[in-house]
Amino acid sequence: MRMLQRLLPGLLCLCLLCSLPLAAQAQDESGQALLASLDADSYAEKGEAIEEIIESGDPRSRRWLEALLGGKLQRHKENGRFVVVVENRGRHWPVVDALSFEAAGEMSRRELDRVGINNALRGQLQGALAVLDLHAEAVEERRDAARALLGDIDASLVEPLQAVIDSEADGEVRHLLEQALAIHRLAQGDVAAVDALAGSLNSQVRAALTAASRSDDPTLAQAASAALADIEQKMRLNRGLETLYFGLSLGSVLVLAAIGLAITFGVMGVINMAHGELIMLGAYTTWAMQQLLPGQPGLALILAIPAGFLVSALAGVAIERGVIQFLKGRPLETLLATFGVSLILQQLVRTVISPQNRTVVTPDWLSGSLMLNEGLSLTLNRLYVLGFALVVFAGLMLVMRRTRLGLEVRAVTQNRGMARAMGIRATRVDILTFALGSGVAGLAGVALSQLTNVGPNLGQNYIIDSFMVVVFGGVGNLWGTLVAGLSLGVINQVLEPWAGAVLAKILVLVLIILFIQKRPRGLFPQKGRAAEG
Amino acid sequence: MTIRQRKTHPSLWLAASLFGLGMATPALAQEDDPIKVGILHSLSGTMAISETVLKDTVEMLIEQQNEAGGLLGRELEAVVVDPASDWPLFAEKARELLAQEEVDVIFGNWTSVSRKSVLPVVEELNGLLFYPVQYEGEESSENVFYTGAAPNQQAIPAVDYLMNQVGVERWVLAGTDYVYPRTTNKILEAYLKSYGVADEDILVNYTPFGHSDWQNIVSEIKAFGSQGKKTAVVSTINGDANVPFYRELGNQGIDAADIPVVAFSVGEQELTGIDTGPLVGHMAAWNYFMSVDTDANYDFIDAWIEYTGDEMAVTNDPMEAHFIGFNMWVEAVRKAGTTEVDAIKDAIIGVSVPNLSGGYATMMPNHHITKPVLIGEIQDNGQFSIVWETPSTVAGDAWSDYLDGSRDLISDWRKPMECGNYNVVTGGCGGQAEQVAAE
Amino acid sequence: MNFLASLADRERVFDFLVPAASPVDVRHGPILYLEDVTVSFDGFRAIDGLDLTIDDGELRCIIGPNGAGKTTMMDIITGKTRPDTGSVWFGSRHDLLTMNEPEIASLGIGRKFQKPTVFEALSVFENLELAMAADKRILPTLTARMSGEIRERIEEVLATIGLTELQSRPAGILSHGQKQWLEIGMLLMQRPRLLLVDEPVAGMTEQEMERTAELLTGLAGKGKQSVVVVEHDMGFVRSIARTVTVLHQGRVLAEGSMDQVANDPKVIEVYLGAEEEVA
Amino acid sequence: MWLTRPFRERSTRLFLGILLAALGLVTLLNLALPEGHPLHVSTYTVTLLGKYLSYALLAVAVDLVWGYLGILSLGHGAFFALGGYAMGMYLMRQIGDRGVYGDPVLPDFMVFLDWQSLPWYWHGFDMAAIAFLMVLLAPGLLALVFGFLAFRSRVTGVYLSIITQAMTFALMLAFFRNEMGFGGNNGLTDFRELLGFDLRSDATRLGLFLATGIALALGYVLCRAIVASKLGRVSVACRDAEARTRFLGYRVERVQLFVFVVSAMLAGVAGALYVPQVGIINPSEFSPIFSIEVVLWVALGGRATLYGAVIGALLVNYAKTVFTGVMPDAWLFALGGLFVLVTVFLPRGVAGLFAYRRRPAEDTQPTAKEASA
Q: What percent of chain B stands above pLDDT 90?
């Protein structure tokens, strides 16, 4: 940021200039020169060049900086022309001229030479763009820009920022900028700044205070550590909530993975080892949808929900018809057969699609996190998954409790013969039930594609946990699955900080074993004479 | 090569008729047998994700070699088996390749444990194994050639870069709980402390294989990083666990500008499984990147894309390692004029072949090779942009200078020493003495 | 039916009619004693303050409409179900609530289930062998050998229950009635002091029923077995009953001779009345 | 004597006959015939067969509890692996100062992860007697404690299966941890000699193969003896009608515990014989998937027949070896297909094909009601 004082005027006028037309000829020469200077050998020189560009106030500066930031500003090896790469996957890239920004056809990687940057320059660029963003239309952008400036202020910026603050309408932005300045003053050893920062949970603020608390000036150090202690108080609550959230989110994943099994295994008594692969199919469906709808990951994801359900459900039907129907009342055989099926499905994916993981893009509205306060923010994708899990569960409950199908399923599972006698087509019910369970597994896959690998091993990683959850909750009891999943998740996350990830998992397993000793039929066992036998 | 056969067969018949079958047939058998190249990479199970491409790479190299007229006038033939990510099966398959198939050389293995399980077999049956993956070092076998990076060819330069160029003062050493991260982190800890980094500025964290829930750890890293000192994460997290890890990083808003992550096991191949948007700027240290700007590399990439028929196919460091290893072996065979193992072992030391980053790789007496060290930053297109590289190539060091046990050990397989773990203090050739004598 | 005849002449004593030596102390008073027993499943009170006393050598019939708690009562006596409150004594020395099924069984309480449960995978002979009173700890069982005299005993019982020619067939193939008999046979092999017999004649022909009746009456007697029969079939109860207990909603509704209870207005209302309605 | 009972059975005599004949034949073909002779059995094959046989022993152990006691253990891999580790630790200590670092006491992996001294539980493993005792004790004790808890509180059916799975899964994670001092993911490897015999010599390999074969024979006879005894009938009784058995005065939980522990020890022995032949033991042997595979062998061979278990183990593993060699890209299809087809078309497994009398196997399966309960 040291360079900002020189370029700030440039920056500000840039925002005004943006639209002013210039003589194209002059533009090209100056532009070419600027860009040439960017293509220096050492990063230091490149830094200088960036400053020059901004000072120049050239209207194209912003687009250049962004291209540079994205590593898309490149130079043609032969004619030294600068271009901006539009799409840089594969070997041949569509490019636009860096001066006129007119399409310049395709160029091969070989011909081009990237103007490289490193993290330092990236920081510099982001800082510069942030300052620009302070003048953006959308208040959100301004807030982010202000937040980005926290801890990145130096003497040069104090004056102009003061000006910005006075002109700024939004209170939040003003508050943030004031804090930014306060951090700066704190660094200068100004004790008063501590009060301005007191109580803020922002990590930059905390960092600044921690630094100050180590300073040699006793009064400052003392004040800073006092403020820190106060902040720590608030943080403690935050951490508690955070851990809870982590737990619930992990739990929701477990529930999603297990709930389908709770149907096929819990209700139908089919020990379906291919359950994991049904999840995998759901995840791959998401990937496929995104391939079908390039550029619209969000839409693809939405569509993947029904699609994933369908694909897995169909696969489920195939498994039911192809294998399980021959194994009525022999659940152990179903374990063996479905294990075979799972092997086949895995290898199928490996050979047909690829043994490598597939990229599933996270749409913008799923990435990032929801900031409750400066110290506590919930990651969005997991938040959605948590919600999704609950919705799926509710839906499933509805189906089992309210619909004809649910009634028939319960009838058939309780007394097949009797149900038959009452004119329920048991075979049809079996198919539908299994399809339902498998479909839900597919939904789980769609959700998991946002959290973890989409690859042939996806299923393997969840099958064991799924069985644990179902059994822990009590076979045949959906509520049990929900409670078991969530509680196991929370326990795991509570243990993790002090036990470490590995030990936490082990402890949870031991806990399950011991718990089953106490409640040999899980959390929610069937009571009464029926269960005694 | 069908053409080649048409060429060779008549001449052989001629030879046969001239010298009489009795004399000719043994020679003929010799001449005609293809040279068998064993490929020992998992095509199923957890490691298939990483290893299948290596199998394809070797097959491609063999194909190219055959198009170029084979080796010593003989065809090369790939013998592929699937050890299925099952470690004992690795040993069994290695035995099958050497004892049953009688291959002349094996290219294979990814995980340390699979190498460890194959090692005794290869030594017992005196085979050749080219191991293409960066590993923890602390090993030097007479029969194994390590074309991947040793810690001093990857970890230490990367840390140097972070310390000097980026100015990192606080370190998180996060890894999957197995021997490679353990050893690497041990070495790094010792190294960092030797540069006066305090204990409380180092956070070591281990997670199980395929760990998928990183929420706690990432927030811990976040907290560790908000102490007013520049912090970096040195990640030895293994393959599968990386995707959820990076996703969590992205979502908890850890930006490369604040807390950069430098990874030793994340290459282009792994990135194909990740939406790299949020990861731009995080780093990896390798000896090769697909983005290396040399014609040799572009040719390799073109050949690879052609071979796989996938326009989006990517190359990575272990593939280059196999490329180098394969060419070194070919060189050595030419030099020795035979595929006989002991001859190759002597011939290959000192052989140097071009690598893909515009330099040369040389096989050192300790069976490790010289490599440049590159540091790359992740781009939004799943590639790395190289931000730093060692001025010259670095020779692989089998025994780390930063571990008590191995500080005094050196490895030199040339005569007269012929020892993988010579102790410069005691002046004895470690445990393998008897065994070497025995063989 | 020479077997009936042999039962008739009381001089001859079948060894399987003589209970195995049992530690139960019946010198003063009853062999089985339930007091104020209550148990409930999910709030539903299956047994509600039940008091019941069985004297040594008595043959007691217990009747009652479905859900009266008959089977549950047996579960409690045999230790399968633990009551919420109350006390259950076997003789005057053994508190059954402190013991588990095997302990209770080895005390000399045998039970026949409502739904006949035999080991279908094992042969009829093996079923009886397992039932036989013997040292049932692990190692003795592991090293146990088939002595001639054991074989004799089993043969006898096989004859009694008329399954001699089926002895080597798996029990799984037996008819319902045959399974009932096999299970009774297993009881005999156990030589218990107290037999709990749950619906012994369900699915039996008239003739089989008679044999069962004879057998049960023959078993009971002072110094011999005490028998508790739970049965729906009024005819059968009438044919064997000395004392009848009527259970209703987990309580004793009435007790006495068949005629007494049959004429008891309460009983007629809740039970026989119901019966007639059904009929 | 109850141990001699099995020899009265035709099936046992047949089985032992075939097994011993096979052992003899292989030995002969390996020693008598020269290399390259078409009928020569290479040491590679001998070792392979040795591995199969140790798997077969494991399968027999599983069949004992599953087939005759109705306990579907998805965690027998744990006992197998424990036996293996006990043996592995012994072999590690045998290396002595011939490790790469030449440390007289510490195994290599401890040296470079700088362990200062040998952990207490490694002591004594340099003595064969103690190590071999541990091969039995370690799995035995685990089975005893686990079984005591589980059977006492009457955990049955899937619940039991799943907690056995949880047990082996927990152990796997634990052994992956390097702090445990068992070499973490790399496990124990680079063994040199067993009881002074060089593990790399063909003679030793043949010896190990024969030892495994004999162990299998003994294990088979032991299981047969148990099954043929009254206790065997009692355990079948427990399998089919647990409650009834209790009312006959049998301590069901003790019967289960006894058989379970015996089976666990057998599994341990199998593991101990397996390790020196494959040359490595690592936590992946604990993986639940492996345990499930073992169950698959048994089911495929034919449950509750014992010899079926052997057939299954040999068949599947031979198939695995062949398929991974000839069709590396597609062998999982073959194996998976095999599992599906056999379960659907041979409900009583391969043994069912030539089972001359009705097998208990397909009768009441306790887990049937459990799973749907």
A: 43
**CA-to-CA distance for D85 and D186, rounded, in angstroms?**
12
10-residue mean pLDDT series, chain D (373 residues): 79 89 89 80 88 95 92 92 94 83 81 81 88 93 93 85 91 87 86 84 89 94 91 88 85 92 95 92 90 90 89 91 81 88 83 60 36 32
Nearest to D248 among C100, C137, C190 (CB): C190
Alpha-carbon span D260 to D267, nearest angstrom:
10
Kindly state whether residue B18 falls inside one of the protein's structural domains.
yes
Q: Tell me: the pLDDT tens digits for B222-245?
A: 888 887 788 999 999 887 788 888
Say if residue B323 is in the same domain as residue B221: no
Note whether B287 and B325 are same-domain residues: no
Highest mean pLDDT among A226-230, B118-122, C220-224: B118-122
Q: Which chains touch A (3 or more CB pairs under 8 A)?
A: B, C, D
Q: Are residues B52 and B189 in the same domain?
A: no
Specify whether B72 is located in the same domain as B168: no
Residues of C in contact with D237 (CB under 8 A): 119, 122, 130
Is residue B253 domain-shared with residue B380, that is, in the same domain? yes
Judged on CB neighbours under 10 Å (0-12, 13-18, 19+), D355 is middle
> Can you give the pLDDT at residue B28?
39
In a domain, B302, yes or no: yes
Q: Are both B386 and B351 inside the same structural domain?
A: no
Number of domains in chain B: 3
* Number of independent structural domains in chain D: 1
**Would the CA dihedral through A171, A172, A175, A176 be positive or negative?**
negative
How does pLDDT run across A494-505, given as a tens digit for each residue? Answer: 998 888 888 898
How far away is chain A from the Cα of B112, in angstroms, using its nearest Cα?
20
Instruction: Give C120's contacts (C-beta < 8 A, 6+ positions apart).
Output: C170, C171, C172, D240, D363, D364
**Contact (CB, 8 A) for C80 and C21:** no
**Would you call A527 and C41 a contact, using CB atoms and an 8 Å cutoff?**
yes
Residue of D nearest to C192 (CA): D248
Closest CA–CA distance from residue C119 to any residue of chain D (Å): 6
Q: Which of A120, A356, A382 has the CB atom closest to B273's CB atom? A: A356
Q: Is residue B403 domain-resident? A: no
Tell me how many residue pairs between chain A and chain B have CB atoms under 8 A apart.
172
According to DSSP H, which parts of D279-361 are helical? 288-301, 307-326, 331-345, 349-353
CATH superfamily, region C29-278: P-loop containing nucleotide triphosphate hydrolases (3.40.50.300)
Q: Determine how many CB atoms are found less than 10 A away from the CB of residue A421.
A: 9
**B421 and B388 in a common domain:** no
Q: Alpha-carbon distance A339 to A352, whole Å?
A: 20
**A344/D332 touch (CB, cutoff 8 Å), yes or no:** yes
Domain that holds residue B22: 2-149+295-371
Q: Are B267 and B110 in contact (CB under 8 A)?
A: no
Contacts of C75 in chain A (CB under 8 A): 532
Extract the tokens encoding C50: 């039940």
ipTM entry? 0.84
* Contact (CB<8Å) B247/A362: yes
Q: List the domain range (segments joined by +) for residue D340.
A: 2-372
Radius of gyration of chain A (CA): 30
Q: Are B231 and B316 members of one domain?
A: no
CB–CB of C105/D249 below 8 Å? yes
CB–CB contact B99 D332 (8 Å): no
Which member of C129, C138, C144 has the closest CB to residue D255? C138
Q: Which of C102, C131, C170 sits opposite D251 (nearest CB)?
A: C102
- Cβ within 8 Å of residue C273, ≥6 positions away: none
| Residue spans of chain A under pLDDT 70 | 1-27, 152, 154-157, 526-533
